[in-house]
Design brief:
- The chain is an alpha/beta fold and 646 residues long.
- It folds into three domains: 30 residues; 231 residues, Rossmann fold (3-Layer(aba) Sandwich); 229 residues, no CATH class.
- The chain is built from 23 helices and 14 strands.
- Strands 6-7-8-3-9-10 form a six-stranded mixed beta sheet, with helices on both faces. The protein has a four-stranded antiparallel beta sheet with strand order 2-1-4-5, with helices on both faces. It has a two-stranded antiparallel ribbon with strand order 11-14.
- Helix 15 packs parallel to helix 18.
- The protein is elongated and about 115 Å long.
- It starts with 6 loop residues before the first helix and ends with a helix.
Amino acid sequence: MAVGKNPAIQATRLFTNNAAEKDLEQSRQANNHFVNDTVHSISWENLSVTVEDRRTKTPLTILSSASGHVEAGKVLALMGPSGCGKTTMLNALAHRLTSSKTKTTGTIQVNGQAASASKLSYIARYVEQEDALIGSLTVKESIYFSAQLALPSAINKAERMGRVKDALHSFGIEGQADTLVGTPLRKGISGGQKRRLSVASQLVTSPKILFLDEPTSGLDSAASREVMSYISRLAKQLNLIVIISIHQPSTTTFDLLDQIMLLSSGKTCFFGAREDIEPYFESISHPIPLHINPAEFLLDLVNIDFAIDKPAANAQLDGIHQSWSQSPNAQNIQSSITQLLNTDRGALWHIEPSSRPDPIFQTLTLLHRSFIKSYRDVIAYQVRIAMYLGLAIMMGTVWLRLPYTQTSIQTFINAIFFGGAFMSFMAVAYIPAYLEDFQMFRKERANGLYGPLPFTLANFLIGLPYLFLISILFSVIAYWLANLRPTASGFWLWVLYLFLDLLAAEGLVVLIASLMPIFVVALAVTAFANGLWMCVGGFLVPPGTLNVFWKYVFHYIDYQAWVTQGLIINQFKTTIYDCAVDNHGGWNCMYPSDLMSEGKIRGTAVIEAFRYGYGSGEHGKIIGIMIGIIAAYRLFGYLLLVLKRT
């Protein structure tokens, strides 16, 4: 009796299938808020992508006339050698090709209707190849904040936490719920767990379509199989559409895929169900040998980068492309797309205006997340506080208990310049912490969770208490050790100017790091900018003799210059200094004032001698200018984020 006709085996299969369907239905009921019941399919026809060649300025085709479709509950893998166009294909489907030099043609439809980028952001999530996670948050907190930022305000806290627990359970990371993701100074979860967390953080927002760029990148075969097993199972349990780019999956990982789209040189070599790939390639005289990984064979077949005989390899690849374009499989795709469109047309998802939290709620959520990071992440503020305390001790002991004589006037001025300049210069230590936040912002913004305004506001507000604390701690040590103007008003004005100095310096760091989000580059440019401010601030070269270009282009927008002026006015506004005695017993005063006959120098004479052009009572004007500079840095940083989409 044939195996396929054996009643016992048929009964066993029927029982197994029924059990699997029962488990699937139970899983869907347990995670009913994640189940997709509105988006039935995504399809694309004649999708092509061209970019402008930087050297020749001519169009360069990256993707050519690709067509395909995926139904809910299926996993489609975009495969091919490096440079074949699979990531471009993924980004095109997700509407992530935003560069002005990139041109996309063709149609992308969801449920038979055109899917714009704004509409797609409500139903789709994109998990990038690099895990953009905040290392100082726990696994549970990472998922929780994703839910807070994406789910409608109408969903109460209990339901949000229920979704978080379901996501933890679905991805098998309940045991790591209270474990930190991991920072450079503290080990966290494994690479495979980070990949699952990245997907779980997007799943908790109830997407209908998941795009994953190289979800197995950097993982060994066991971890890759584990991650893909979860993704495949969740696609079926939650009826999701999952589209991934993957380079060379193992045999067991390959068998987990539902559909394959094989690309090479931007053109389609195959599109269809996983089980159809062997018979198709056998039909075009390229059978897949037994006992070999099909994915490995296919990639070797369509990869011409390392071919010894280039003309023969190109001819073979052209033949594969031509065979596909003329095959019945390719012709059937169009009819399948048409059938899907006729079935799904009119079943477009509905987007409610209240389906996203309002900007105020988003800002408060980001502020909450930043607060947790600020006290857990040693690099963010704790190292900076320790660094500034060390700087304060050094300054206070170098300029220790300066006497109020004319020989100390220049020394006081040097101490003031050092305190203001180096406080702002050391703000470069904030770059690593900001870049982590910035990468998270780019990912969450691309997924439509929030825009630049909540991010900018939260980033500014979280720094206020810490920067004020740094100003206080630094001043308590350095101010009194150096014997600066020993009054309460003098001390608090010093604190205020240092606080404004740090706010401006951090605003500059945010602006530069947003423009050039590479640590070494941002560090170098920020250090250069601070060196420039020191040079044109008026201390090293008096404003009266400063080159006209530097004076009128940079001097008046130099926050260090204004801080130095304010601190000098604060120190010398009411203080009096003793003159030296000459060889004849008379007074030798460095700065003439109305107290010269008494052997004294009034501090206002020092202010006038330095020709800063401000009277001793104009603190309000300088503080107003500083606030304007701080606001300008933050405004330019915000506008940069608005304009910089990628």
